[in-house]
């Protein structure tokens, strides 16, 4: 049992660089797991449908990222980062959390945001952009708040620890 | 002295916070800084909340200014004040209240438009919890406050049985946003002997000492910019000459742009200085940074 998991871990570590999706830069190897999404998914696909499925979620994430990239308060944090990968992993993470049945292949929130020096005000700016993107997609306000409630505790991993 | 205690307590709570670092403005989500309560602290209209005033995070300094008018059948209460929030940890507030007795002043033998005034100096320390971000924990945001109040009509206050024109309230507040339901709830315990918030002094012929009073709010986010809710606040009943009742309100708070909040409420203060059924419109404008 132990050996099997070690073997699986080694395999996944080795596999990561080879499997770099088109248009993305390779990242240092890490263990893949849905638990990296740092949240428990909603039980059924009710929320996934409230977000208009894959197309709706993709539009919400693009809306959030595009607004963030042009917001002078936080745009510097995204400079030189792999935004193509960010869009893909965020789509996976939201799909996984919203009950859309995807597998999350990204890193943990703590690992992904390490040493970025993100402050509470940066997170609030990003949430504002997420809210604006959800409004544009006409997501029901109650569904918006249920997703935000799931993301909010990630603050402890995303914002730099003092 | 109380003030100094609060500061010392704050430094014990957060050992690292005395370090000087670059401060940064902004960082709270819309409407999560509350509005200005009648006593000038961050809260609902009637109730004090555990939230710290101003649009700042642990990295900055924020604050607000507000003007409030409460139009009652026989009286008018106007208040103007401000608050400063330091690193979302400490709040210092001040408000000046003007209570106009209008024609009731004649019936009370005080004269037309007789004015009672009061200054309230407040300090609040957040001691635990995060009302907004800790959505995976039930622990509410908890704060302790002191509000020192100075009423300006000492002679009349004594004449009607009041013990003092000055008084100090001690408060313990718990506030939590249940974001998944868009619901904000608050419960506050206030030790006070204030008569009508302190405008008619402190203590009275019926009861001189402080008693424990309750104030609470429940508010629902309707849209990202609009919150509606209700509040309830019990008050002591210290003076023999005039009964005092609990107060309640139903309110709507609207965020206007990034820096302003407009609050409108229908409020019922009960009987005030023998004039019953003091119900009317509460209007408040707050600007914050
Ligand atoms: C709860 C809020 C947040 C969530 C759910 C989230 C989610 C993610 C995810 C899934 C990734 C990709 C992980 C990977 O590459 O394996 C990521 C990376 C990233 N995030 Fe966030 N994030 C949040 C907050 C923020 C904030 C506030 C900022 C900055 C304002 C930010 C900036 C970035 C950047 C620049 C990357 C790219 C890292 C890289 O390419 O190495 N994130 N985030």
Protein architecture, described:
Chain A is globular. Residues 1-17 of chain A have low confidence and may be disordered. In chain A, helix 3 packs across helix 5 and helix 3 (53-69) crosses helix 7 (120-136). Chain A has helices at residues 2-18, 46-50, 53-69, 75-78, 83-97, 109-112, 120-136, 141-151, 155-158. Chain A is 58% helix and 0% strand. Chain A has a single domain, classed as Orthogonal Bundle (Globin-like). The longest helix of chain A has 17 residues, at 2-18. Chain B has 289 residues and is mainly β. Helices cover 8% and strands 47% of the residues of chain B. Chain B has a 12-stranded antiparallel β-barrel. In chain B, strands 1-2 form a two-stranded antiparallel sheet. In chain B, strand 8 and strand 9 form a beta hairpin. The longest helix of chain B has 12 residues, at 2-13. Chain B is globular and about 55 Å long. Chain B starts with a helix and ends with a strand. The A-B interface holds A 73, 119-121, 124-125, 127-128, 131, 135, 141-142, 144-146, 148-150, 152-153, 155-156, 162 and B 16, 24-30, 57-60, 132-137, 178-182, 221-224. Protoporphyrin IX containing FE is lined by residues 74, 77-78, 81-82, 85-86, 89-90, 93, 106-107, 109, 112-113, 118, 122-123, 126, 151, 154, 158 of chain A.
List keywords for this structure.
heterodimer, A: 162 residues, mainly alpha, Globin-like, 9 helices, 58% helix, disordered N terminus, B: 289 residues, mainly beta, Porin, twelve-stranded antiparallel barrel, two-stranded antiparallel sheet, 8% helix, globular, binds protoporphyrin IX containing FE
